[in-house]
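Good morning,

Attaching, inline, the backbone tokens for the sequence recovery test we're adding to the shared suite. The designed sequence is right after.
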């Protein structure tokens, strides 16, 4: 085997969460000792640590790790970046896609780094509005671009499975900086993220 993926979890955190989740299951009317639930607190403890790993990650360090001098001043767009996060009000998932663009001012970064920045801020308890501006700010502060833009489209389980039960609503948030505050640039970006250049599945 040439590649093995290993996951590491903090034992004290896992143990503490397991204790709490066992109690939560009881409070919800379940029997944490029945067969199907025996390993559930531990699985959930690990899933929650995975889903909040962004707290331990540094977006600017990631962008700086692949920062190159390049004399391009055309718009760079990375669209349809998959995104999974959790709303901080209900701790239920919201998920969708992020679209990012920037116009370099002498510095570019690796395209995959932009996708990782989405992970850094989405793997936390979030609100979609703050997630959008945190991604934008990290790009602006690291690359000092002429302009930057972030649009996020996401469906929120807290709206779909509880409360107002709006199954098909999608929330769109956006944040713009510099050149993207001007209409022509913003329109070009919006039309690029809507275009089907490569057929979407
Ligand atoms: Zn919520």
């Amino acid at each position: 085997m040439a590649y093995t993926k290993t996951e590491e979890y903090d034992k004290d955190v896992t143990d503490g969460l397991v204790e709490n989740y066992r109690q939560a299951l009881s409070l919800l009317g379940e029997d944490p000792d029945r067969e199907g639930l025996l390993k559930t607190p531990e699985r959930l403890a690990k899933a929650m640590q995975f889903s909040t790993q962004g707290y331990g990650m540094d977006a600017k360090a990631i962008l700086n790790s692949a920062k190159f001098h390049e004399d391009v001043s055309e718009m760079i767009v990375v669209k349809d970046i998959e995104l999974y996060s959790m709303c901080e009000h209900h701790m239920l998932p919201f998920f969708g896609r992020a679209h990012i663009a920037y116009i370099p001012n002498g510095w570019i970064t690796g395209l995959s780094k932009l996708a990782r920045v989405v992970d850094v801020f989405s793997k936390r308890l979030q609100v979609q509005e703050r997630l959008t501006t945190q991604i934008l700010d990290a790009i602006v502060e690291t690359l000092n671009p002429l302009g930057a833009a972030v649009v996020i489209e996401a469906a929120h389980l807290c709206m779909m499975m509880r409360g107002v039960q709006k199954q098909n609503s999608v929330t769109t948030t956006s944040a713009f900086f510099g050149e993207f505050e001007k209409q022509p640039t913003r329109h070009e970006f919006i039309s690029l993220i809507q275009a089907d250049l490569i057929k979407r599945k």
